[in-house]
Amino acid sequence: LFSGCNIDSMSLAEKRKCSDEKLLKYVYERFKWPPGFCGSGRVVVCFEIEKDGTVGNCDILRDIGGRVGDQVLSIIKTMPKWTPGMKNGKPVKVEFNLPIRICLE
Prior knowledge:
Blueprint: H1 12-30, E1 40-49, E2 55-62, H2 68-77, E3 85-87, E4 90-92, E5 94-103
Antiparallel strand pairs: 1-2, 1-5, 3-4
């Protein structure tokens, strides 16, 4: 779960919704259009949440060019620690694929 969404009083569905919303807000607030870019599309980035909640192994799976993917990747690498995934009561590494719609209006 993204930072700030692991509140005991929340249901799992509420935690996931909170996490999704905060993650996208984090990315979109930090995104800066690369100079000269004109277009739209979807960037997909893959990353792992390590057992300690840090982000690692980031990679672009789909890019729209114009250094947009590089911009998204740099944002992902600066994310705060997450609440790690749990299995049998122990933290585990989780892979995450994040599609981000980019639209210049």
